[in-house]
Specification:
By secondary structure, this protein is α+β, with helices and mostly antiparallel strands. It has helices at 4-15, 19-30, 98-109; strands at residues 39-47, 50-56, 62-68, 81-87. Strands 1-2-3-4 form a 4-stranded antiparallel beta sheet. A hairpin with a 2-residue loop joins strand 1 (39-47) and strand 2. The longest helix is centred in the first third of the chain and has 12 residues, at 4-15.
Length: 115
């Protein structure tokens, strides 16, 4: 069963007008990913100025990154930027998100996953 976080965050990536998700769409496009075909495994606040994320691209590559922005500012997410963009396709199975990532892959392959 896929985590509700994967479904919810992927939907937010594809549809939300909230500054954070709008900016993340732009940043992912800049990395060569199609936000409408990218699955969000996780985006977790790790500090007052950043969130750690993991996504799966349409071509089934897994990427880990840190998203920095001023979380205290009203529109701080509009100037968010990515750091530590890392292709972990060959090593995600040993990470803390291994189960959720495997479930996200299965969800991507299911006919009910929205496109």
């Amino acid at each position: 069963m896929v985590s509700s976080i994967v479904v919810q965050y992927t939907d937010l990536l594809r549809t939300s007008d909230y500054d954070l998700w709008s900016r993340l769409r732009v940043l992912l496009k800049n990395q060569g990913l199609d936000p409408d075909r990218t699955v969000v495994v996780d985006l977790l606040q790790e500090g007052p100025d950043h969130e750690d994320g993991q996504v799966i691209s349409e071509d089934r590559r897994v990427y880990r990154f840190t998203l920095y922005y001023d979380q205290a500012a009203e529109h701080g997410a509009r100037s968010a930027y990515l750091s530590g963009w890392t292709d972990i396709t060959d090593s995600w199975r040993i990470g803390s998100l291994a189960t959720r990532t495997a479930d996200a892959f299965a969800w991507m392959s299911s006919p009910t996953e929205s496109s």
